[in-house]
Amino acid sequence: MTLLALRMIFSLPFFLVAAHFSSKGMEPLSRRDLASIVILGILGYYLASLLDFQGLLYISAAIERLILFMYPTLVVLISASISRRFPDRREIFSILLSYGGILLVFAHDVGDSGNIVAGSLLVFASALSYAFYLVGAGRLMGRVGATRFTSYASMVSSVAILLHFFATRPLSLLHVSARVDGIAFAMAIFSTVIPFFLLSTGIRLIGPGKVALIGSVGPIATIWLAHVFLGESFSFWQISGSALVLAGVLAISLKPKPSS
Q: What DSSP character marks residue 192?
């Protein structure tokens, strides 16, 4: 919670500046849009993170990652339900490949855990919260603009996280070493501000469903990075699962050429 608060303290000024410049020359936000941004800001980063961390108190990280990365499937299903259409064969194929790969990668890590039911439900709720954020963001960006939406929603998330910290932790915890401040600042730039705006641009260009499915590459990238930088082992099953996930990402990313 302290690291999360430090990240948002360093991130908030960037979101404030982006909100200021992205609002120039645009019509003021309606009360309905403002209310939607507040709700989505709470769902997208504050609530999803909080539920995820609470779930980790009861289950292993392997099980947590497996459940958390169900969110692309949830996005596709929520979007299909709202638009009253069934996912097409390419989306279904991509879902099966991606999650087959994730299951293959993490299945050998899943062992006995504490209260698996409670922890799994909390992490699933986190995935569902983030899925609703992506769907809502995709529908709202067309009206208010991608950069302005991201700036305002991120400001809401930052304030919610800081209020939670101030209500549950002593302020003295924010007095950390210069090294920790430097790491938190780097995380604010490279793991918060830049990804938030890249994500919003991706949603605007290809829609929340495809963005979520492409996000399935996240746990696989984590395994590769852990192998390269932390020296963790990389087994045959991890390589096979990575190939399936990447195949699923390509299946949803590469559009078929229109027939002439």
A: I
Asked if residues 121 and 68 have their Cβ atoms less than 8 Å apart, the reply is no
> What is the number of domains present in the chain?
1
Instruction: Single out the residue of 220, 209, 211, 218 nearest to residue 243, CA to CA.
Output: 220
Residue 43: left (phi > 0), alpha (psi -120 to 50), or beta? alpha
Range of the domain at 202: 2-89+113-216
Q: How confident is the model at residue 111 (pLDDT cuts 50, 70, 90)?
A: low
What is the chain's percent helix, strand, coil content, to nearest 5?
A: 80, 0, 20
* Strand, helix or coil for residue 235: coil
Does residue 232 form part of some domain?
Answer: no
Q: Using the structure block, give the residue that is written with the tokens 């809502």.
A: 136
Angle (CA) 55-219-242 rounded to 5° is 140
The residues, any chain, with a CB within 8 Å of residue 24's CB and separated by 6 or more, are none
Query: Does residue 244 belong to any structural domain of this protein?
Result: no
Question: Lowest mean pLDDT: which of 43-47, 141-145, 159-163, 238-242?
Answer: 238-242
Cα–Cα distance measured from residue 9 to residue 164, given in angstroms and rounded to the nearest whole number = 13
Best CA proximity match to 245, nearest among 64, 95, 131, 109:
95
The pTM for the full model equals 0.75
Q: How many CA within 13 A on the CB side of residue 70?
A: 18
**Which tokens in the block code for residue 35?**
């209310």
Residue 103 in any domain: the answer is: no
User: Residue 241: inside a domain, yes or no?
Assistant: no
Q: Encode pLDDT of 133-173 as tens digits.
A: 888 888 888 788 888 888 999 899 999 999 999 999 999 99
